[in-house]
Automatic annotation (TrEMBL):
GO terms for molecular function: ATP binding; ubiquitin conjugating enzyme activity. SUPFAM superfamilies: UBC-like. GO terms for biological process: cell division. This is Ubiquitin-conjugating enzyme E2 C. Accepts ubiquitin from the E1 complex and catalyzes its covalent attachment to other proteins. In vitro catalyzes 'Lys-11'- and 'Lys-48'-linked polyubiquitination. Acts as an essential factor of the anaphase promoting complex/cyclosome (APC/C), a cell cycle-regulated ubiquitin ligase that controls progression through mitosis. Acts by initiating 'Lys-11'-linked polyubiquitin chains on APC/C substrates, leading to the degradation of APC/C substrates by the proteasome and promoting mitotic exit. Residues 1-11 have a biased composition (Polar residues).
Length: 183
């Protein structure tokens, strides 16, 4: 299945420089193809009815999205809402989008800048994934972190004691939300 991540619009053979206008046309077609795919994913996401996840393009730019994830019921994140920024490359879906939290998120696999350590956003990415898959995976990561590969050591150490973790999580969340409202 490795071939799923090979962009057929980007051949690995060398291209004659006399074909620059042809390459430009191919890039325009590729961009149109990515836009079409993202529009389709937006419709699929809107029709899915998945609880606790949503995402929409920012303004008219189909390559930049804002996502929202609610903490799943029965988890320490229940009742909390997080915003994400999703930036799609021109060769999407053959390369993963850049996804990060814009709402500060205290979590073992999220650093202070909102970067997320999640395998499907890195080396396990496949063109079969879509925005819905990403959002569901990040939502799932909230309740099931990989504490063996933490970006936030404090959160990873606290994770074992869920009562203490929840108290620290809510304290940080309230403090961070207040800070964001002042900005």
């Amino acid at each position: 299945m490795a071939s799923q991540n090979i962009d057929p619009r980007n051949p690995t053979t060398s291209v004659d420089t006399s074909k620059k206008s042809s390459d430009s046309n191919k890039q325009d077609a590729a961009s149109h193809s990515v836009k079409k795919r993202l529009q389709q994913e937006l419709m699929t996401l809107m029709m899915s009815g998945d609880k606790g996840i949503s995402a929409f393009p920012v303004d008219e730019n189909i390559f930049d999205w804002i996502g929202t994830i609610n903490g799943a019921q029965g988890t320490v994140y229940e009742g909390l809402t997080y915003k994400l920024k999703l930036e799609f490359p021109n060769n999407y879906p053959y390369c993963a989008p850049n996804v990060r939290f814009t709402t500060p998120c205290f979590h073992p696999n999220v650093d202070d800048h909102g970067n997320i350590c999640l395998d499907i956003l890195k080396d396990k990415w496949t063109a079969l994934y879509d925005v819905r898959t990403i959002l569901i995976s990040v939502q799932s990561l909230l309740s099931g972190p990989n504490i063996d590969s933490p970006l936030n050591l404090t959160a990873a150490q606290l994770w074992r004691d869920q009562a203490t973790y929840r108290a620290v999580l809510f304290e940080k969340y309230e403090s961070d939300v207040r800070k964001m409202q002042k900005i």
